[in-house]
Amino acid sequence: MTTTTVDPVVALSGVTRDFGSGPVVRDLDLDVRRGEFLALLGPSGCGKTTLLRMIAGYLEPTAGELRINGVDASRTPVRRRNIGMVFQSYALFPHMTVAGNVGFGLTMRKVGRGERERRVREALELVGLGHLADRRPAQLSGGQQQRVALARAVVLRPDVLLLDEPLSNLDAQLRVQLRDELARVQRETGLTTVLVTHDQEEALAVADRIVLLHGGRIAQEGTPREVFERPRTRFVAEFLGYRNVLELPGRGEVAIRPEHVRVHAATCPESASDTSAEVLTGTMRSATYRGTFSTATALVALGGGQVELHGVTAGPEPAPGDPVRVELPAAAIVPLHPDQEDPR
Amino acid sequence: MIRRPVLTLVAGLAVFFLLFPIVVVVGIAVTAGTALAFPPEGLSLRWFADAAAYEPFREALVTSLLVAGLATALALAVGVPATYAIHRRSPRGRNLLQTLFLSPLIVPELVLSFALFQFFLVQAGIDTLSALVVGHAVLLLPYTVRVTGASLMAADPALEDAAAGLGAGPLTTFFRVTLPVIAPGVVAASILSLLTSFNNVPLSLMLTSRRVETLPVSMLSYVQTSFTPMVAAVSTLLLVLAVAVALVTERLVGFQKVFGKSGS
């Protein structure tokens, strides 16, 4: 085994998966470091679930190598890997009790009865369900079922905990609550974790590191802050909610979030506070009152054409058709790099 | 008094036509006389006693139960794994397989039974009972494949993935996860199969011999020579059996659950 600077639990190199109609994951290199909480983020069809299923062992890579703890596991079937998986549908066994579900993996591993019962109890207490051990899944709420699924995966002390869109079947409020719980359980167990999600908020909130996938390749990776505040390409910027992508003279292609763009009536005195801001002039298109602020859309002349910019306006909104001044604070302007060759 | 006279009349007629034959059969069965007459001439259970004592019927009943039980077991043993393979392993020619397993429903039963007669009894020289069991099993396959298939389609395929992820091999997964989950479908398929086999005439007619007969065939040959209310008594007993099976099913699993969800 070669020593590396980091200690990857899962190491993928040159991994490709093709279902027969073009690769879904293409020539991908990725290390999952010991103890980290990694989020695979991307729109549907970006290959994130395929990637997760290859790490789990439900799919074999068409090409490339997958190592788990330094050992080639590309052809190892899922039942011989030590993974813990939480499914989108939870996939709890409906004919078993909660304790039966959580203990199933231990029974398969021939763990003795006494130890099995102790570990099942610990796992259920970890997710706060110690009192529901004898219930059936059908008697539990969605959130409780989700916790049982988590306990069932965690109880095996897996090499890597895999979460496939675990919160997508829950309503918004519960989703936030269980998201924090997921982060807590991961911290307390120290398990290396890979989360698949299309919800950027979820990824930003829980992950140590985000890998954003596009067309089966890594579009960008980094800490949540790095990825969110410094998207590299137009695709990443747009996926993360940068609604304004434009060519600025002297700066090239840039992105800026609408909440940073300020739209003023042209008659308003210029603020002297931010002298480095880019200032554009145009006409007001529409405004929507949102309570503490209003969102505004303005048309500005740029590079010989008209560009629509989304921003916010404070105070009285200019009427549609009014001349406006649009300010882009320099610190909020993110320079973009050309997209990698179109993967499709 | 009657708020919707036309509707009530139509509904009443429907119920009448459904129940009338049953009433007639039961009526004839409890007659004290010797003729197949309705209404009965006096009440008696003598024909039930006669039927119970009639040796050909007793033997035929044992044969029928044996054939129904064995054929159902055989059809489940072949049908359930086949359904599992069709729905979970997506084999090549999956649609062809599915159609093949349903074909006994489409091929006229007499054609099927003649083919089986030719093959089993004439060419292979298999004994009557085995031929009956295998023949009935072929006839029951569509039910087992269809009904358990509906249960499988309703079950979350991620359950089997989950079991594999927890370290279970394919056999363990099938017996500890898949089979318990589709158990209501298997029970429904069993009941349907038992009743279908027990009531079958065309296939049994072709495959039975003078010495080994199923109950419906035995009744048919009895009716061709004798006209006593004994056949009505046997029919009544069969009716009671069917109702009993239905009630037990209802108590055990619930009709809605077994037949309602399986659908087409």
UniProtKB/TrEMBL annotation, chain A:
One annotated GO molecular function: ATP binding
Sequence ranges assigned to domain ABC transporter in this UniProt record: 10-240
PROSITE patterns: ABC_TRANSPORTER_1 (PS00211), ABC_TRANSPORTER_2 (PS50893)
Protein keywords: ATP-binding, Nucleotide-binding, Transport
Pfam family, one: ABC_tran
InterPro entries: AAA+_ATPase (IPR003593), ABC_SmlMolc_Importer (IPR050093), ABC_transporter-like_ATP-bd (IPR003439), ABC_transporter-like_CS (IPR017871), P-loop_NTPase (IPR027417), Transp-assoc_OB_typ2 (IPR013611)
UniProt keyword ATP-binding, yes or no: yes
Protein name per the record: ABC transporter ATP-binding protein
Organism of origin: Pseudonocardia nematodicida
TrEMBL record, chain B:
Spans through the membrane: 61-87, 99-122, 128-145, 181-207, 227-248
The ABC transmembrane type-1 domain, residue ranges: 61-249
PROSITE patterns according to UniProt: ABC_TM1 (PS50928)
Keywords of this entry: Cell inner membrane, Cell membrane, Membrane, Transmembrane, Transmembrane helix, Transport
SUPFAM superfamilies named in the record: MetI-like
Organism superkingdom: Bacteria
Pfam families: BPD_transp_1
Membrane topology field: Multi-pass membrane protein
Subcellular location per the Swiss-Prot or TrEMBL entry: Cell inner membrane; Cell membrane
PANTHER family attached to this UniProt entry: INNER MEMBRANE ABC TRANSPORTER PERMEASE PROTEIN YDCV
This protein's name: ABC transporter permease
